[in-house]
Write a structure and sequence with these properties.
The structure is a homodimer. By secondary structure, the first copy, chain A, is an alpha/beta fold. The first copy, chain A, is built from ten helices and 15 strands. Chain A folds into two domains: 2-175, 3-Layer(aba) Sandwich (Peroxisomal Thiolase, Chain A, domain 1); 183-339, 3-Layer(aba) Sandwich (Peroxisomal Thiolase, Chain A, domain 1). Chain A has helices spanning 27-30, 52-71, 91-97, 113-127, 141-148, 205-224, 240-253, 265-268, 284-301, 318-322, and strands at 2-6, 9-12, 17-26, 40-42, 78-85, 104-106, 132-139, 164-165, 168-175, 183-190, 233-236, 262-264, 281-282, 306-314, 329-339. Chains A and B meet through β1, β5, α3, β6 and α4 of A and β1, β5, α3, β6 and α4 of B.
Chain lengths: 344, 344
């Protein structure tokens, strides 16, 4: 079903098609340079709920519902959804998806979750588990900061390397291939391997994740025998401004110059000068909302033809950090292509 | 690649083969009625480490290593491993798998994780992502109790409905099908849907999970047009003594009598009379260790020919419980068959 090219690197013989996607973000993300591209900018950080956790759940659910609405499907049409988030025990996905009653595969890849979800949902679609599958993820500034760092009311100082957890969600719906590639397809993937270079600072995640992104990208270039200029964009998740520089240096050392095509969702999401987000954005929702708000539309319109989407995750927990553990990074990747079949 | 039978229910056209498996448990599990069946009973609850979290990581790693050793493979032979656990941000899997450097797909299905992992790892193997894939999970009494309920030193009273989180781990290695079913294969699966009947008591998880197990089993019976007596055993994860009774009642109401073949890992793991475990065992490691210690050997020797393994998970977190949320249950299922090709 897939062409296995090297360890964890594959391409689809018949690629599944992305038939719908949607993005929801908070007000701060809506005020950023890409604010106009998201389907929904929600000014109420509580999304009408009593708690931040409920807010994130509602955001995720609304995003899936919107993706369904956009392609005229119902939740009962989906054979499964791959869902995950940053909260303890992934409750954004649990309570977000509960009312939709879709067979649920819970995943955890920290901020790499959107790429992991796309990878698995595309695999399940290509393998024939029903006609439609989906992937969704979310993050919320207030749930993540309270959980991983300090409660908001503590008012702690954020160092220059810190990233701003995005309030956002992205959802993608895939269709089983029918033999004719058409529209935007998931054409390949790379399952990430953990890389841990010993970073212990939970406020310096870009440095913790960049080596994993480099490992995944170089594995994919080698496995597929492609070079950076094959792609219109090589998109990473949320390395931010500091991690992005590190990534370009790390892949350059292995003979690949990605600097002309590299784009990082965390570095793009906020205005560096006016939005006080230090090293940029982070969180599962950062790359998910940028994928669904900016990159998938660019592929759909033909402005881009072929991109790599390599979301990046820092596999940490407050317990591990308190025990002095370092932060392993991981980066899963999917290749996305516009297969527009036009009449001759 | 799969025959899609109904929503989320499928069978493999060419089933991937289970070529190795291993189990590790703690001393209390080793003292139970199935103690002799596990590969390793570790008397040191700390597994030689400084913290409970490190102990669980080491247990999970050792179990994967043992499964690799038993079939003569190395970590570098695996194209991916599906791994998850109960700890916040799945750090048992993160730090457990870190030294092994295997492409990692993080999953979260609470105590249903072993079935979710087997479902995905078998799908990836059948789809051709390399020759070997794997699934692993773990739980540890001390990490789970501290996280979900009270620190051990608090010495809280446990109600009769409470279950005892198993210290244990199970790992399974699968091989891509070569067209000839042989040995023990994963022949089908059912992706679980969340079911929430409003249980809010974190000490009554059997009741929270039984409706999800019933939903999954009935969906599988209907989708495959089979009946309970098709199977030598219908194994649930960790419903425990109370949840097991509920499950039998719930499926009976839908016309299926599973009482003769139903076995619950949580009800089996400990001696009810002497081990003070109240309603039985729970935790990701409960069904994982019983699968790898008892059921897979029974299939391998031919004592059983065909079983359903439906692990069950309670998708909760302390944060959600404190906010008054109910506990949705989920149950993923895999069908396992002995395909022994004997000369005529």
């Amino acid at each position: 079903m897939v062409r296995n090219l090297s360890r964890g690197v594959f391409q689809y013989a018949q690629p599944p098609r992305i038939i719908s996607y949607a993005s929801t973000v908070g007000q701060k993300e809506g005020d950023g340079p890409f604010g106009a591209c998201f389907d929904c900018v929600e000014p109420d950080a509580h999304f009408g709920q009593d708690t931040w956790e409920q807010a994130e759940s509602v955001m995720q659910r609304r995003t899936v519902q919107l993706a369904l609405d956009k392609c005229g499907l119902q939740d009962s049409d989906l054979s499964c959804i791959c869902a995950g988030d940053l909260m303890n025990q992934c409750i954004g996905s649990t309570y977000g998806m509960r009312p939709l009653e879709i067979p649920l595969l819970g995943i955890y890849g920290a901020c790499s979750t959107m790429a992991e979800g796309l990878l698995l949902a595309s695999f399940l679609a290509a393998g024939g588990v029903g006609e439609y599958t989906a992937a969704v993820t979310s993050s919320h500034f207030s749930t993540a900061e309270r959980q991983f760092r300090f409660p908001l009311s503590y008012g702690g100082q954020r160092p220059p390397t810190a990233q701003w957890t995005c309030t956002g969600s992205g959802a993608v719906i895939l269709q089983q291939p029918d033999g004719i590639p058409d529209g935007v397809c998931v054409t390949g993937g790379c399952i990430g391997t953990m890389v841990d270079l010993g970073v212990t600072d939970a406020n310096h995640m870009g440095a913790a994740m960049a080596p994993a992104a480099a490992d995944t990208l170089v594995r994919y270039f080698k496995g597929t025998n492609t070079a950076p200029d094959t792609y219109d964009a090589i998109v990473t998740g949320d390395l931010g401004l500091i991690g992005s520089e590190l990534l370009c240096d790390l892949v350059m050392k292995q003979g690949y110059d990605i600097s002309a095509v590299h784009r990082d969702c965390g570095a793009m999401l906020y205005d560096r000068k006016t939005q006080d987000t230090h090293a940029g954005g982070s969180g599962c929702g950062c790359s998910a909302s940028m994928l669904c708000g900016h990159f998938l539309p660019a592929l759909q319109t033909g402005a881009m033809k072929q991109i790599l989407f390599a979301a990046t995750g820092a596999l940490m927990s407050p317990t591990a950090s308190q025990q002095g553990e370092s932060i392993p990074g991981i980066s899963h990747l999917v290749e996305l292509r516009q297969h527009c079949i036009k009449p001759a």
